[in-house]
Design goal:
Order of helices and strands: EEEEHE
Strand content: 15-25%
Number of helices: 1
Structural class: mainly beta
Distance between the termini: 21 Å
Number of strands: 5
Radius of gyration: 14 Å
């Protein structure tokens, strides 16, 4: 498999590998009951990047159910993805304001 990006030196994200289901959104207090919840998901095996972060597209209907349960729209602004790395020199304390582009599902 050949990639358009050199992944040598890829760093672990500050939060570790993760799927974010909400970001800068206001949800019901019940959202705290989902913290640390483990869910099954499917992911694509081809990493994507914006030259700062590396992720795998994810499919997980349970995440949309959780968003609805805490009074958020069923889909987030950015498609679900598993953040797996940060490119060298980009680790500053999380996302720097530019997010991964939407994926074609």
């Amino acid at each position: 498999m050949q990639f358009d990006c050199d992944f040598r030196g890829l760093m672990k994200p500050k939060e570790g590998a993760h799927i974010t289901i909400m970001r800068q959104e206001k949800a019901d207090a019940s959202v705290l009951s989902y913290d640390g919840l483990e869910v099954e998901f499917e992911y694509e095996h081809s990493p994507e990047t914006n030259s700062k972060h590396v992720w795998l597209p994810v499919v997980c209907p349970r995440l949309s159910d959780i968003r609805v349960a805490v009074n958020l729209p069923s889909e987030p602004e950015w498609d679900y993805h598993l953040t797996i790395g940060v490119m060298p020199g980009e680790q500053k304390g999380g996302w720097s304001g530019d997010h991964p582009p939407s994926f074609a599902a």
